[in-house]
Sequence to fold (373 residues):
Amino acid sequence: MSAVQTSDATDEPQSSRGWRPRLPRSTNEGFGRYSAVLAVLVVMFVFLSLTQDRFLTEQNMKNLMSGVSVISICALGMTFVILGAGIDLSVGGILAISGIFLAKMLALGLPGPVSVVLTVLFGLAVGGLLNGVLIGKAGLSFFVVTLGVSTGLTGLVNIWSNNKTTYITSSFVNGIGFSEFLGIPVPIWIMIGCFLLFLLVQKRTYFGRDIYAIGGNVEAARLSGIRVAGTTAAVYAISGACAGLAGVIQTGRLGAASPLVGTDTALAAIAAVLLGGTTFAGGVGGVAGTAVGVLFIGVLQNGLGIAGVSGYWQQVITGVILVSAVGMDRLRQSGGIGRRLRGSANTGADPLTTETLTDDIPSAQGASTEQTA
Fold:
């Protein structure tokens, strides 16, 4: 007795809890992608420790790690965006307007914890409803959209704040910036918590796998049943929420909501992500490398500050790092393509289809399965 079960191209894509494409080996976040940057970081740390008496002190280490917490949280959100083959140039504007939003909520008499939660949700809404909808749903260029949103938010920040700094008197918000728990500043705890959360999402959830799939091959991801538009919108919403949280920390550390913050946040976050081995093309990299990139930039800027280098030269050096990171990313991509071409020449395989997501995608033209009982 036998039965034949058929399916054709009209079948609905499988649900988000169903089949998922196997991640190609190239998407694994390998240590080798950021090992060189990590080696330079270790050398730089040792050099500064030996040459600068004020560098390897408990207070300076706290200042260094607290200082990179803002960039780190923004870079975590940026990692997911770039893994999905996008980019978010608006994180600086969202960070700045989130600080102003927080000050306005506190001025209305809302408790500090409620104001902080609303601020993070505000950043999520800005990132999701503006960037997410226009890029994920409407299909507009991520570069044009995020640049336009960044420019618009910068103007709104100046209008809403009257181009003035608003000082914060909330003990809760100021405590986020300056208080300690178990001898470690709160911003560092928040940074560590965010890193562990993003690492969990990246490695253990369907959502994290969907981001890799979309960045690796968007058409293949769509054919596999992944909701590309919704996932893309969610990624930009997450980036906005990270910028909102970073705005809370920045406001707490400054003790004020300033319209001047966030001007170089996006570029610093992008530089950290690229230094950490995540590729601009998407689908390759991860948050572990981003953490290394953030520490690299933080240690360098801290060491230059202690050595008496002016802030302007630090900006120049950060720009050089960004360009170098893009160059490194291009070299990694060129090397990977070259290896695949050489491998295909030896095996006779098609270099454009070897180890891609389409290896695991059922035929869109129809498939049939025979079950015999």
Notes: The domain at 54-342 is CATH 1.10.3470 (ABC transporter involved in vitamin B12 uptake, BtuC). The chain has one domain: 54-342.
